[in-house]
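Justification of computing resources. Each target in the renewal requires a structure prediction run like the one illustrated here; the chain below, 557 residues long, is used simply to show the kind of job we budget for.
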Amino acid sequence: MKVFRLLWPGFRRQSRWILLGIALILLSLFAAAFLLGLSGWFITASALAGVGLIMGLDIFTPGAGIRLAAITRTLARYGERLASHEATFRLLAELRQRLFDRLLTRDEFSLRQLRRGDTLDRLTRDVDTLDHLFIGVLGPVIAALLLGLAVAGAFTVMGAASAAAAVVVILLLNLLATLLVARTGRAPTRQRSAMEPDQRMLATEGLEGMEVLKAFDRAGEWGRRLGDHNRRMIVLGRRVARLDAIGQGVTTLIGLGGLWIVLVFGIMLTEAGGISTPLLVLMVLVMLALTEAWQPLPAAWRRLAACRTAAERAAELTDAVPARSIPAGTRPVPATHSIEASRLGFGYHELLPPLLDDFNLFIGAGERIVLTGPSGGGKTTLGLLLIGQLSPDSGRVLYGGRDLESIEPGALRQAIGYLPQRPVVFRDTLANNLRLASPDASDARLIEVIEQVGLERLLEALPEGLGAWIGEGGADVSGGELRRIALARLLLTNPQVVVLDEPTTGLDAGSARAMQAGLDGWLGDRTVIMISHEPELLPRYDRSIQIGSQKSPTLNG
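Resulting structure tokens:
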């Protein structure tokens, strides 16, 4: 089952907390059953002693046992909450970290294909759904089973073997009822769980695109679509709620039926002198406690289907294969920083014509080239292929004469500086956004790179200077300023190869030319690949390569 495969590494590492949680759940159930049964025994024995049927009743020992059971139950319940939640939070935190680490191995293109809201849902809501697995299913079921077996063993020791057999039968019937409810509710539960992400996406996309929907007079249609989706979810929710109620009612009936059977057997044993009347009352009340322990389990086990759906969605983040394979025996970055594409072929879909077919290109160490051409012609794709973010369908890319795929990925990332077409800044200070590239950079160094990219006016306009906060996604800066912040961050690194994807987008001609001089000095003798529709605004370059929609791109000197 995928849910257990997904959580198994965490289960192994958090096994102590998990076992402690199960032990405390079991102790809490034992204490509750013991408290109820001993109280019934003590009250009955006291009543019989009062009418003279029992002589010399010791009231101190059972009274102390009752107090001990009450205190133990309270402490065990509190401790079980602490242990089980600690185990669950550790499991989920570790799972999120593992999913995020896996995302870090994916190439830049495949990350673009992820829907932001859906991916966030997988890392938050779907992972949170899995907290029910241990707290609501595994721990209580294991504890209820062990409690039932312990009660059957205790009845056997007391000389009530027939009552013990009845307990075993009741356990089997409860297991059967639980499994039947889980099986019946699996389909509607999984269906409703699968609809929840679509519901959130419909709502959020509708709100984000409300202006467009209103402009085309489609807002009402979108609202009806969302309403129909919600009504289907409500129908499924009512169905599983009724199923939960039926499951709880069935287990209650089984438990009460077992209680009556134990009562009948107990009366027969009492009349035969096998057990005393107080022990009969103890057995009946223990059966009542056992029934309460089983009542919530059918619904809990049914919700395992929701955990499975959530696990499958979360696991898709780990199952995705990076576009660039990482073979064993990787090697360090070569000393020569030339790049060569040899008979390169690449397409995004087998039914579409390839963007590149038998493409050859050599970029010498220290050479600067510009990739130009119409949108959708493959400029960004070629750039990603040349730095190993994508793997070609045919041919290969050589870095310093060595196959790019044989170079250690971490060293390759340090050797290549990349300014993406859609740069990202975080909701943090300007200084912290820049120090992502160089944590030890001084304020003076940050100001220097800000001036190099022509952002000194922005810095002067911010009252807090480098300490000014930037909104999420750069919401409070312009597109050109956002790109220059990302470029300034790149200038804090020391790569041997630099790829700049549309570095002047969003800049007016004056701002672009102001940036040229500072950027040209930093590029120095690095190997540079620039992608642009406006090559006249770029720093100095040696060659321009036209990438068109045709299969064979043309090279312009």
